Amino acid sequence: MKKEGGRARLKQALRLAQEQELHDHVARCYGNLALSAIQGRDYAGGEPYLQEGLTYTTDHEMDS
User: Fold this and answer.
1) DSSP 8-class letter at 40
2) Would you list the domain boundaries of the chain?
């Protein structure tokens, strides 16, 4: 339960950061969502966040 509540808050933070175009925060949210899933051994659940985060940071030239 606690983990799901935390992930829900991270997803909310991601949505808010996207709406406000806060690129660093969006990237951080993707990383935190991926890490949260991976730490919970939900590798399949973390992979989309890794891919979306990589795409986002590349598209916004944050891949240095």
Assistant:
1) T
2) 24-64
